[in-house]
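I would love for you to help me understand the pair of lines that follows before we discuss the fold together.
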Amino acid sequence: MPKRATRFVPDGGIKCPDSGITRLRRVVADRQVGRLHLATMPQTKPACPACTLEDVLSHPGHWECATCGHEWPKDEVPEAARVVKDAHGNVLADGDTIALVKDLKVGSGSQVLKAGTKARNIRLVPGDHEIDCKIEGTPMALRACFVKKA
């Protein structure tokens, strides 16, 4: 049984030999039946909101319709809100008061922060040390796993 030839075209589509239509689809050849099956690929480009055609160009900050010239901004995925939890699983927020759950050495010196030491008006920041606060007048960056909500 002869194989059906498909031709790849420069825009990433496939030209079907039977109909001659260019399609943006993935071709799956079924050699046992001798047919050409077309499975739809997920479309990554949206249709133009002005003319509803799918001939869209992608730019870094926006989409542009190649047919009518309409431009619109790309919808950026908003970052998920960061949830910081203390050692007991309570959610922390800016302005909370916290207490240390264990003794912590400060730097390479001999200073130690004792368990139960409180810090008021904390600020949550990105990074591995999620909490910025002042303990006894000294600015500190702490990890949330060493504190509890007071």
In short: The chain has a mean pLDDT of 77. The first strand starts at residue 7 and ends at 8. The chain has two domains: 19-77, 84-149. Residues 4 and 18 are 9 Å apart (CA to CA).
